[in-house]
Amino acid sequence: MNHPEHDLPDLSALDFRLDGYTLAGGSDEYLFHALTTNHDCLAPLVTHHTDDGRHSYLILHDTAATWDIPGSPQLLAMMLTRDPGNRTFHFDAERHPLISLAQRWLIARRAAPDAVRVPPERTGARPADALTIALEEQMMTSGTRYDIVEHYTDDCTEYETSVLVHDTDPSSAGRPYRLFLETWSPDIPTYTLREGAFPTSEAAWEWMENREGPLPAPRTSIPGVLARPRAEAARAATRRSPQPPPAGLPPAKPPTPPSPGRRR
Questions:
Q1: pTM for the whole thing?
Q2: Most exposed of 79, 97, 153, 173 (fewest Cβ within 10 Å)?
Q3: From the centroid of its chain, how far is CA 215?
Q4: CA–CA separation, 73 vs 64, rounded Å?
Q5: pLDDT per residue as tens digits for the range 218-229
Q6: Are 218 and 197 contacting, i.e. CB atoms less than 8 angstroms apart?
Q7: What is the pLDDT of residues 243-261, one digit of tens each?
């Protein structure tokens, strides 16, 4: 239960529907307060409440995520489970670099896929093309297919989120490391998502460092997306300026010292 000195912050603007509720015993009260204290920096992208009022599924954009730690994921997926009889609630939350991964996390907690899609009336950036939509759908419904290896969100210079995963699907044998790149512009309310395939994490690291040639697209096709637009999208993912590699991957060669605020 909450202690009197730890009352819940005013979360009415986020539609958490917790008026009159307290955290149930065993819940991580410190984490909940850490996630919600600066709630004025949280913009709701998805808010779904079940008809019985017991469960809520939310995806929030944390605009302050990269202030202290550059590269941090900006999306917060949260599940609330209420006990109306005792007026208590449990919560579970996790940060994610892409909205499709936040949606996947909620679906794994029994949210209906249609319930966690971004409503069409929601303002903000939208997918720029059919390939972006198809890749997001594939990732959102991927279950346990992708194991995340590394990710980085750059909202200062490149305006790009990179996510390296290990693809456990048999169709990816030979090139099981998939690099997903989400690129957006601060001036245009759209973004693109592209996928590259690599035999090793080191190969993905090297491509991210040098950006030599187009992003190597996987051979597997996505239903409803033509091969030609996908090839053109892979070429478009190439950038003229080099990008430092994700942290935590072994270097293929000595790395260039990073600039302040860039990934290590």
A1: 0.79
A2: 173
A3: 20
A4: 10
A5: 976 666 654 444
A6: yes
A7: 333 333 333 333 333 332 3
